Amino acid sequence: MREGYEGTGPGAITPDGCAVELYSRLPVGAEPDIIAAAVPAGARVLELGSGVGRMTHALLERGFEVTAVDESAEMLERVRGARTICSPIEKLDLGETFDVVLLASFLVHAGDVEVRQGMLRTCVRHLAEGGCVLIQREGADYHTNVPRERVDPAGFTVRIVSAEPVGDGVDSVHAEYVFPDAVWTQTFRTRPLTREQFEEALGEAGLRVDRYLTEDRMWVRAV
C-alpha cells in the first residue's frame, strides 16, 4: 500500500486503496461524452489510471483507440478490447506519443508533489504534436462540503465521510460505498488545488489550459 492509503471490503485492494470489485460495479457517467466532444474522432488515447476500464470501454465504443495504463494488474484484468500496460503513471515511458493523454479520477491532486509532477511529465512525454491532455480536477467544495452523500440511481450510496488535514496542505479523505450486499471503504491522501495553483502546476510541466470543458471547471483541456 502507498503510505496513507487504505481500502476495505471484498476482493483485491490496489496500492492506493481502490477495491477492484467495487470499481467493476460503478457505472460510467458523462465523462466519455465530455472527452469525445473535446478531441478528434478516432483519436489515439493514452488513458492513465484506467482501473477496470469503465471509461476505456465507453471510449472504445465511441471509436477511439485506447491504451490503458494502471499500476494494478488486478484492475487491468477487467479491461477488454484495449492494449493494457501495468505501470505506475509517474514512471511510464513508452517511447511513443498519442493524440490525447487522459488523466482523470482526480489523480492530479496526488498528495505527494513529486508524484503529481511525475504524472504531468508523463502526460507531456507521451503527447503528440498538436495533441491535448484532458485532466479531471476536484470540485471547488470537495474538501469543505463534508460529510456528504449521494444515492446513485443504480442503487448504491457514496459517502464522503471526512477530509482531515495531515500536514503540508494535504488532506486524508475517507469514503464509503454502500451496496445492498457489500460495503467498501477507501482512505486516500489528496492535495486541494485552487485554480491558480492547478494552472501553476501545469505550467511547471510545460502545459497550459486551453479551455475548461465543463461549467464547474472540473474537466480541463490542456496543451
From TrEMBL:
Entries under InterPro entries matching the protein: Methyltransf_11, SAM-dependent_MTases_sf
Pfam families (UniProt xref): Methyltransf_11
Keywords recorded for this protein, A-Z: Methyltransferase, Transferase
All copies of domain Methyltransferase type, residue ranges: 46-135
Class of enzymatic activity (EC top level): transferase
Annotated EC: 2.1.1.-
Keyword Iron-sulfur appears in the UniProt entry: no
Protein name, UniProt field: Class I SAM-dependent methyltransferase
Organism listed in the record: Streptomyces griseoloalbus
